Every structure is written in structure tokens, then in C-alpha cells.
Amino acid sequence: MGNVFPGYMGLADISGVGQVRFSDASISAKQTVDAPDLVNGDWDHDAYNYGKIEVGGSIAGPVTETFMSGSGGGAGLWNWGVCRHGACGILNAEDVTLYYYCNGGGSEYRSRAFSGMLVNSLGFSCAAGDVAQFTMDIMGSSAAPWGSSNPPPKTDAEKLLTWDKVGIVITDGGDGDAPTSSLELAYSNFDFTISNNLNPVYSLGQKDLFPFEIVPGMRTITGTLSIYNTPQADGFNTYDLYDAKNPCTISFTIGSIVLDMKVRFHRIEPSLNPNVVVSSLGFSGLTHQSGPAWED
């Protein structure tokens, strides 16, 4: 083989999760060289400094049956990206080794390990008639030198999660703002993004230019339901009609796991066209998200 290698032999190995199949992964250590404009007796830049190092990127692909439970005893991508731990709501930091290709024992660089990786955001989407998809934006605290080890073989079969295994049930919180209809509600699309709003922290006098700490922020949840027809979901005209302690609940299934998400719905946005009538209904996660899938 020449100097061009196929990427299908690559792999992402995540401690605490297991080996992950994906359609795209872009993780790297980024650093800029800054050259400020100075009065320095020359028309070219002669003074420079190295900028801070930012470790991170994204992983995206189809949702498999190990999305919640992981492989080889791992906890799964959901637990890594969403579950908060302890009284302060910390996240699990994992190490990610990304293998780029297999070179049959040669010495070319083809793998790299990234340490202290946290999930900045986790996105989930599923359209009727399709396979559910995930995307993860991750951030870390260090990157090891390039390695030359071949990826471990991953030959076990996994079933992809199709739309018929993603179910949705909406429960009103008691103040009447959940979508309702005389007909049974049916959905064409469901997507949401859970953001942990990570903050990389740098300190004076630190030993290198990597962040010495990554601090999770408040969790932000946004999403959209696409509903056939036009259910009753007009929201409220005045703020005092809301009952702050009783949000609606979206109970959704991912395979065999049922999760409850506490939300407030936005006003419905119907779309009229010659084809099937589909309305868009946005939502925001509100109040404490409880349960084993959200915290422990």
C-alpha cells in the first residue's frame, strides 16, 4: 500500500464507554501563533507568542444499541455526556484514543490519545423512516504525542437504532400547555441538544499551555418536536398563567431505556403545504432533571 490509507480501519476507544463506531470524528489539539502589530522598525512581524492549546472536537454517527449501556462493560455515550454526579453535578472525564488507520505494523503515525475529555454537548435526532443519529462536542485537558499502534479489532455486530424504537409520550404538568389533539399525536422528527457549557480554565505560572481545569457550567436543554397536523399548543398569553413547579414531561424511549425530560413548550409553528401537514414545536428543558439517567 502507498501513502494513502482508508479510514474505515480507524476507531475511537473511550475509557469508561468502550469502542465506538461513528461516521465522522475530528479531535485535535489546536494552537495559534500570535504576531501582534508593533512599532518595531520593520514592516514585517518580528515578535510572536504561542497561544493557549485547546483540545477537543466532535464525534458523530448513528445511534447503536450500546448508546445507553456501552460496550465491554462501559457506561455508554449518554452517561458520559449527560449524567451529573455528586452534590456539585460534576461530569465524568474520560480518555479518548483515536486510531486513524491500520498500517500493518509500519511506523507511520496513526493514533493519538487525548486525556481528561468532557462532553460539552450531546445532540440526538431521529426522523421517521430513518436511523437515529448522535453528535458530541468534546473538550479535554491534554494530548499525548502521536503513536504508531494499530487499532484494536472491532468485529462484533451492532444493531442500529431505527425510528420505530424511538417512542414519545407527553404528559401535561397540570396547567394545560402540553400539545393536545382529538387525534392521537404522531411525530415525524424528534431532536434535542444537551449542553454542559464547559469552561476551560488557564492559570498564571502553569507548567504548559493546556487548560489546567475544565469546569462544567449549567446544563442547557433545547429541542424540537415535529408533529403531524396541528395540535392545540398555543402557550399562554400572560406570564401569570404558568405554574412554575409543574412543567410538562416528555417521556421518550431509546431502545429499551425510558427517559423523562422536564420541559416548557414554545408556541406551535404550523406549516401548510400541498403535502402532509407538519407542525414544529420547540421546547426548553426546565427544572431539575431527575433520575438515574440524569444524575447519580
**Estimated helix fraction:** under 10%
SS class? mainly beta
What Rg is obtained from the alpha carbons, in whole angstroms? 23 Å
Please give the oligomerization state of what you see: single chain
How many E strands? 19
Shape: globular
- CA-to-CA gap between the ends? 49 Å
The total tally of domains equals 1
Mean pLDDT: 91
Q: How do the SSEs run, as a string of H and E?
A: EEEEEEHEEEEEEEEEEEEE
Low-confidence stretches: none
Strand content: 35-45%
- How many distinct helices? 1
Q: The biggest beta sheet, please?
A: 15 strands, antiparallel
Short recap of the structure:
This protein is mostly beta strands and 296 residues long.
